[in-house]
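--- STAGE predict ---
source: upstream dedup step, 1 unique chain passed
mode: sequence only
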Amino acid sequence: MRSIWNGAIGFGLVNIPIKMYAATESSSLDLDMLDKSDLSNIRFKRVNEKSGKEVEWENIVKGYKLGERYIVLDDEDFEAASPEKSKVFSIQQFVSQDEIDSVYFETPYFLEPQKNGENAYALLHAALKKTKKVGVGTFVLRNKEILGIVKPYNDLLIINKIRFPEELREYEELKIPTKKAKPGELKMAVTLIEQNSEQFDGEQFKDSYSSDLLKIIKQKAKGKKLKAVKREETSESTIDLMEKLKASLEKTKKKVS
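--- STAGE serialize ---
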């Protein structure tokens, strides 16, 4: 596993040297884009807008348009913007994770202690676990400031990237229903939720779509023709909500028994 960031966690006056690793990977199938006529691969090139010629990576720079001209930035400029945050995830406060709405959560990263950081790493892990708190702070990754929390996960520490409040879009323009739920329907809905409630176990959830799609690919490779199953769309006006809730409860009862 290759680290994507080397730095430290700032815990009070203690700096814990760490390496950070991507904690997730995609489970979707790797599909290539092909030309329909001969199934040749479609390739994307980095092309100079004026000359139309392809540009090699080593000749590409990053720039910001200020007025009518571009200001080119190099690695030293990015580090100079915030040298401390480029190397240290500084914990600014400790909070209960329950205080952070799930809408803010994004990507998790594994943390590994570097040499001479093992004791402080283990101490922070134990302290966070005992207090049931998470540390909130920021650091710079790939020239972008990241807001995140450091927390214990099993026997290691992770940083979970979270969104800045300004990254959440407004939703006032959406048509959100203002009608209140009917008492009878609400009671049945609550019962349905309670009957289907259990402790979360992520192991029981699998990416079945990708595995089903792979089966179809293998069947097509054998020359088998497949027919798509059309689902009947039900108009909302024809749905009796109470009847649907009753049927759902009956289904749950049979499942339990």
